[in-house]
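Subject: for your reference before the review

Hello V.,

The reviewers asked for a structural picture of the protein, and I figured it would be easier to keep everything in one thread rather than splitting it across files. Below is the amino acid sequence we used in the manuscript, unchanged from the supplementary table.
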Amino acid sequence: MLYGLAADLLVVVHLGFVAFVVLGGFAIPRWPRLAWAHLPAVAWGVGIELTGAICPLTPLELWLRMEAGAAGYEGDFIAHYLLPVLYPAGLTRRAQFVLGALACGINVAVYGWWLHTARPARRGRIAGPRRRRL
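And here is what came back from the structure prediction:
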């Protein structure tokens, strides 16, 4: 029972990480320092996908499931949990490319917008407040 609960919790954490990789850029304008965590997360997530590697959380989840007496599954987390939702049967490779480019474009656009609008605000903070003379 405890292993099954741990596996389910790990799936939630894993899903949260994937969501952070894809959508975390939208939080950067509000919390700019979050970029220090988001950019490495994006690099990790994209690297795992481009190299075809399996995230270390996937074997851990499978081990927890087997210890709980449940059956494991083939492939990785993305293929098992997200692909059936994101890529329904019959989806073409071209459509997948467009969706991937769209996800990448969203993060590039959000970061570009943030860098463009935040630059003047940062200059003002670095210079400090102006003092009025009496």
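For the response letter, the relevant points are probably these. The chain is about 70% helix and 0% strand. Residues 2-127 form one domain.

Happy to draft the paragraph if you're swamped.

O.
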